[in-house]
Amino acid sequence: MTQDYLAFFGLFAPRAAAIDVTIWHKHNPILPVRLTDGANLNPSGQIWRRLHLGEWEYKQDPETLDDYEARQF
């Protein structure tokens, strides 16, 4: 029971800095995002994001010819 009280008071302790997740993972944004290279968003390329130094970074895969042809049909 003492552990329950300690856990409760732990909620008010200072929090650690944001964890740096450097692994890119797929992301489907609802709103437009700013890409790290400053390029315009391509409507059919896959968007990837990662948490780097406390901020989200976004990049997009270029659309291949096969992707373009598959989108046409």
Structure explained in plain terms:
This protein is elongated. The model has no long low-confidence stretch (mean pLDDT 76). The longest helix is centred in the N-terminal third of the chain and has 9 residues. The chain has a domain of 48 residues. Strand 2 and strand 3 form a beta hairpin. The chain has a three-stranded antiparallel beta sheet with strand order 1-2-3, with no helix packed on it. The chain is of the alpha+beta class. The termini are far apart. 23% of the residues lie in helices and 26% in strands.
Summarize the entry for a quick read.
The protein is built from 2 helices and 3 strands; from the N terminus they run αβββα. The chain has about 70 residues and is α+β, with helices and mostly antiparallel strands.
What profile does the largest beta sheet have? 3 strands, antiparallel
Task: Name the structural class.
Answer: alpha+beta
User: How many E-type strands?
Assistant: 3
Q: What is the CA-atom radius of gyration, in angstroms?
A: 20 Å
* Overall morphology: elongated
Low-confidence stretches: none
Strands ordered across the widest β-sheet: 1-2-3
Number of helices: 2
How confident is the prediction overall: mean pLDDT? 76
Give helix and strand order, one letter per element, not per position: HEEEH
Provide the β-strand percentage band.
Answer: 25-35%
Distance between the termini: 63 Å
User: Percent range for helical residues?
Assistant: 10-25%
Task: Please give the structural blueprint.
Blueprint: H1 2-10, E1 21-27, E2 47-52, E3 55-60, H2 65-72
Antiparallel strand pairs: 1-2, 2-3
